[in-house]
Amino acid sequence: MLNRSLRTAILELNAKQISIRRIARTLDHSDRVFIHEPPFAWHPEERISWSEPGYTNLCAEHRLVEAEEAGIRIERCAVCPYFRALGEIGFRSEVRIPFDPDLVETVAEVLG
After folding, report:
1. Do the domain assignments include residue 16?
2. Domain count, the chain
3. How does pLDDT run across 35-90, given as a tens digit for each residue?
4. Is the pLDDT of residue 13 over 90?
5. Are 65 and 75 in contact (CB under 8 A)?
6. Is residue 112 part of a domain?
7. Which range of residues forms the domain containing residue 18?
8. Strands (E), 1-112
9. Is residue 106 one of the residues assigned to a domain?
């Protein structure tokens, strides 16, 4: 079962989506909304140098095993989320592994 705050966030997001659809139907007689933003508005044009992360979920030495994901041969680490495509990936620009909520354990902790 989802924890209470996650369930509330999902319900709020759903309510916002319903409100946006209603606005679109009223103003444009459509179910679609297009949000236009300047390409540089929230993304800097220059590369920002970041410090090394304090934590990473990638391991130092990967234990790679061959696998297949969405018809594409990949190597994935048996320990961490790292993976890479082997060979051609066709017309795709990258390999995407669908999110599987059954593989994720979530722990909510109140801070403060």
Report:
1. yes
2. 2
3. 666 665 666 677 778 888 788 888 889 999 998 887 788 898 998 888 888 877 66
4. no
5. yes
6. no
7. 1-36
8. 64-69, 72-77, 83-85
9. no
